[in-house]
Design goal:
five-stranded antiparallel β-sheet, HIT family, subunit A, alpha+beta
Length: 112
Amino acid sequence: MDCIFCKIVAGEIPSNKVYEDELCFAFYDINPQAPVHVLVIPKTHIASADEVSPENSAIVAHIFEMIPKIAVKAGVTNGYRVITNCGEDACQSVKHLHFHILGGKPLSEQMA
Ligand code: AMP
Ligand code: ZN
């Protein structure tokens, strides 16, 4: 499968890793939109939030357990925003589920 984030997990494309365990991988976004901008992805290919199911939701729960630790590891000290873009209207550009962690400054009150 031609998936850029699967290739990052496999080490075929370089990334700036923040955290890794058996289920998830976290790395800095190549085009940061905040002083701290980290992406957290499942190691297995899940296309988007639309594809979360009883079979894979434990991975998503695990990711949410890890997000606070990943945020601290990335230097966030005063709060952060977690975003997942799903589908066309949300401008999802990479079709492998990912959670953006944004922080390091006061963020906009607008979300859209
Ligand atoms: P989205 O628009 O929600 O699908 O987000 C995809 C994100 O992946 C964007 O913020 C991109 O900057 C980021 N991205 C794309 N390719 C890479 C890469 N090779 N390494 C790190 N981040 C990437
Ligand atoms: Zn993938």
